[in-house]
From TrEMBL:
Record bears the keyword Iron: yes
Keyword annotations of the record: Hydrolase, Iron, Metal-binding
Pfam families from the UniProt entry: Metallophos
CDD domains per the UniProt record, alphabetical: MPP_GpdQ
Residue stretches in coiled coil: none
Name this protein carries in UniProt: Calcineurin-like phosphoesterase domain-containing protein
GO molecular function: cyclic-nucleotide phosphodiesterase activity; metal ion binding
Gene3D superfamilies: 3.60.21.10
Similarity comment: Belongs to the cyclic nucleotide phosphodiesterase class-III family.
InterPro entries: Calcineurin-like_PHP, CNP_phosphodiesterase-III, GpdQ/CpdA-like, Metallo-depent_PP-like
Length: 267
């Protein structure tokens, strides 16, 4: 069977919120240890490629990105990074410019094209796709002969049903969906940021978010509230005929130390 004829096994990890100090984290959860545990869980499955969709290093420290590399090197597959609102995008480019772990924005695998967008708005929690990014997306979709495409970004382009969180998503989603509407090869849009699972379909496009590898936000609430669910990741099986299978796998238990009263997210 040729590479063009086999299904692609993709793993998405998101929002690890690492620090220079490996002993700290969010709301009592050690984010480095939790990230390691989720990566170990992901290593139990077959994997061809991984996407890490932002909020990689909470304190934006050089040491934090070194810790990230240390863990991701164990995946031993091409791994592609997107900045979130808690990231230093410039440092990411210098640290992960090329190689097995990279910030490559356009990846062709078999019949599929993966397109990674930077929705970071420096100094802001919410996101935005500037004109340059949107033009790049339009060109990438127009010029590629890949029959099917997936788009990844950090910020949610649709409301997920949390009154406090939805205003902090992508600020100009209509611009993204204008581009997508002109390109029916787009099969899915996938993001992080919201620390919870989301799965809907709009005009034939699957809309998906993924749990954090650290703490989880409770869905469907008006004010910030943690959810007592284990961290996890999302898996994809991308078939050569354009069919997409996906699901979420979580750790068996909530990380030790979870404390809603501890120092935390800081939105």
């Amino acid at each position: 069977m040729s590479n063009q004829d086999k299904a692609i096994e993709l793993v998405q990890l998101t929002d690890p919120h690492l620090y220079a100090d490996q002993s700290v984290g969010l709301y009592g959860v050690n984010s480095f240890q939790s990230f390691e545990a989720v990566v170990n869980k992901a290593l139990e499955q077959t994997m061809d490629v991984a996407v890490i969709s932002g909020d990689l290093v909470h304190d934006e420290s050089e040491q934090g990105y070194q810790h990230l590399r240390q863990v991701l090197e164990r995946l031993k597959v091409p791994t592609h990074l997107i900045p979130g609102n808690h990231d230093d995008a410039g440092f990411m480019q210098s640290e992960f410019g090329q190689g097995v772990i990279s910030c490559d924005k356009q990846i062709r695998m078999g019949q599929w094209q993966l397109l990674l967008l930077n929705s970071q708005l420096p100094g802001q929690v919410g996101g935005h796709l500037d004109d340059k990014e949107l033009r790049w997306l339009e060109r990438a979709l127009t010029k590629s002969d890949a029959p099917y495409s997936m788009i990844f970004l950090h910020h949610n382009p649709v409301p997920v049903g949390c009154k406090w969180l939805d205003p902090l998503g992508l600020g100009n989603p209509e611009k993204l969906f204008e581009v997508i509407a002109a390109h029916p090869q787009v099969k899915a849009v996938v993001w992080g940021h919201v620390h919870q699972e989301f799965d809907e379909e709009r005009a034939g496009v699957r809309l998906l978010s993924t749990p954090s590898t650290c703490i989880q936000f409770k869905p469907g609430v008006e004010e910030f509230e943690l959810d007592y669910l284990p961290p996890g990741y999302r898996w994809f099986r991308l078939h050569p005929d354009g069919q997409l299978e996906t699901g979420v796998r979580r750790l068996a238990r909530v990380p030790e130390g979870l404390d809603p009263g501890a120092a935390g997210y800081g939105i």
